[in-house]
C-alpha cells in the first residue's frame, strides 16, 4: 500500500556556473554558462519522490522575498504539498552557489538563510507520513524533531546525513530506521578507515538501522542486521553530479513508501542517482518513474 512521503529540509535558490575546470584558490575562471533554479537537499529530495508518483509533502522555510515565492511555486508545479512550508519574514531565502567542471565534478557553497530558522514548531506542521526523510542542511534541533515525530507516527525514518562534518549523537542515530551517507560523509561521521567499517559502525551505533553508503561510480554498500551486501553501479556518461545523491534518497523514500522490498528500493534509487548525473542542473536532472522503469529494462 502506498503512503505519503514527508521531507523535512532545506530549499534554496541555486546559481550554477559551468566551467572547464574548477578554480584554484585566488584564481578567477570564466563560466561558459550560468543558470538559476530551485534546489536544496530537502526540495530536491521532495521533487525526486514526487516524480515517482508518491504523495509528497515538504516542510521547510523560505524568505519573504521574490525567491521565496518562486521556490514554493516550483514545488507546487511538481505536485509537492507545501502547506507546511512557511515564510520567514526575518531572513532571506536560502541560496547555493554551484560550480561544475567539464567532468561533472562540482563544488557547492550554501548560505542557509531562512533554512537556518527551522524549529520544532515548524515540524509540528508536518502531516502524517509513511516515510519521514530529512538531512543536515537545517538546524540539528529540527532534525531531531523530524525523526522523533516520524518515529512517534510509526513512519520509516530516513536520515541523509549531509553535509557531515563529524560524529552525530547516538540518540539521534537511534531515531533512524535508514541512514544514507555518501562515502565521505560516512567516514566523517565515524572516523573509520573504510566505507565498510563506517557502515558497520553507524549500524551498531544506531542500534540496528539499515545503512546505505553510496560510492558514486563504485555503486553502494548496504549494511543490514550485521551483514553487508554490495550494490553495483549503473554505467552512464556523467555530465553533472549535482543532486545525484538527492535523486537516490528521494527515490529510495518513495519506493519504501510504496512498500517495495529494500533490495528493490535500493536498485531503483541507484538507477535514479545514475540518471541524475546525465542531465545538467538539480531539479531538471531528477528522473521520473517512467524514465527509471525504461532505464531498468534496458539490456546491460
Summarize the structure.
The protein has 10 helices and 13 strands. The protein has 300 residues and is α/β, with parallel strands linked by helices.
What can you see in these coordinates?
By secondary structure, the protein is an alpha/beta fold. It has a single domain (5-297), classed as UDP-N-acetylmuramoyl-L-alanine:D-glutamate ligase, CATH 3.40.1190.20. Helices cover 33% and strands 23% of the residues. Strands 5-4-1-8-9-10-11-12-13 form a 9-stranded mixed β-sheet, sandwiched between helices. Strands 3-2-6-7 form a 4-stranded mixed β-sheet. The mean pLDDT is 96.
SSE inventory with pairings:
Layout: E1 5-8, E2 12-18, E3 33-39, H1 41-50, E4 56-63, H2 66-77, E5 85-88, E6 94-100, E7 106-111, H3 120-123, E8 131-135, H4 140-152, E9 156-160, H5 170-173, E10 178-179, H6 183-190, H7 195-205, E11 210-214, E12 220-224, E13 227-231, H8 244-257, H9 262-276, H10 289-297
Parallel strand pairs: 1-4, 1-8, 2-6, 4-5, 8-9, 9-10, 10-11
Antiparallel strand pairs: 2-3, 6-7, 11-12, 12-13
Helix pairs in contact: 1-8, 6-7, 8-9, 9-10
